[in-house]
Design a protein that fits this description.
homodimer; Rossmann fold; five-stranded parallel beta sheet
Chain lengths: 227, 227
Amino acid sequence: MNDPQRKAVILLSGGLDSATVLALARDRGYACYALSLDYGQRHHAELNAARRVAEAGGAMAHKILPLALDVIGGSALTDSAIDVPEAGGEGIPVTYVPARNTVFLALALGWAEVLGATDLFVGVNAVDYSGYPDCRPAFIEAFEQLANLATKVGVEGGRFKVHAPLIRMSKAEIIRAGSALGVDYGLTVSCYQADADGVACGVCDSCRLRAEGFAAAGITDPTRYRV
Amino acid sequence: MNDPQRKAVILLSGGLDSATVLALARDRGYACYALSLDYGQRHHAELNAARRVAEAGGAMAHKILPLALDVIGGSALTDSAIDVPEAGGEGIPVTYVPARNTVFLALALGWAEVLGATDLFVGVNAVDYSGYPDCRPAFIEAFEQLANLATKVGVEGGRFKVHAPLIRMSKAEIIRAGSALGVDYGLTVSCYQADADGVACGVCDSCRLRAEGFAAAGITDPTRYRV
């Protein structure tokens, strides 16, 4: 158990994974500061979910930082000219957002410096990562090294830690861990194409992985699906 | 000389240093894509300067990406509750923006991926860096390593290069190099407190370093000062 006053910045998307991360960080005794990025997602269901999750998860504060990634384009998630595919396919998917986790962790690092925190939590996962390069353990380690060189705290001898507690867990393991800590997954949204009320499409990669995870965990899926 | 079609992303602030970097990148044969961040600076003189510099410097495209760093606060440059000091002082200055270069390079990396570029140029300088941790060579090298792990191109065997051509140059050397390539420094703004027309305060750290640089280079300073 850490000092109960020790602060951590949690990247919170409003999805299942980051809701679990928030619960794990709280369970480890951190005072949690949740950061969500409004990066030109096609809908705001995810950010509405992040607000609910931050509140239910006992975050000390929740900031939503607007980030116009559509200016640089290149992803089905931020560029309306690219369709989100229903099937999985091979290789790195079009839903990959260029340099997303690098950008998100950099912003979390900035807020951590302001708060005097040296712990960052991120819900990346190398099992279900569908080919995203910035979800691998080597990426997380490289970011940690960068953080120590990039910051005032690092220069002054502090050490940043990037916690990626889900990185080697299956979706079912994540759901079991969160459920044991009382996470209400009904508040979360995973779907790439959820409607404004958070009702999920049921057919995209993200919906499929989520549904399979609940089935494998033997836990009832609270998600509302359109199909 | 590189392939004339080879693309590079240039971080362009509208200041003296990044205007020089754009000229150096063009001189090395790159097709230059300039990226400026609108990160809650107190005025827009700098971004107006970036527009002029991108056009005069022959950039293929210039994007200005809004980035609400004021949401996380912590710097005199983005937080109006903190005064910009006139004198230098010791250690890391209050004008330090938490994790700024990490965030800016991450966004440049994202655009580079979209463009199919693997060269990034940034005008950081370790001589006049006034204690900014993210202007040191070790930081640049760590970012390059991160970029290769963070991206689709890196996964597929490509190699990113972060060029920081000014990193070991004095301000006078920078000004001489840019002048030799025809950079019009009258288009640039360095001042932390320039007015909307780009007229500089003449007393802040940035103005002082700039004026000393022109004097040391033996080149007439085209800056318009209020004092």
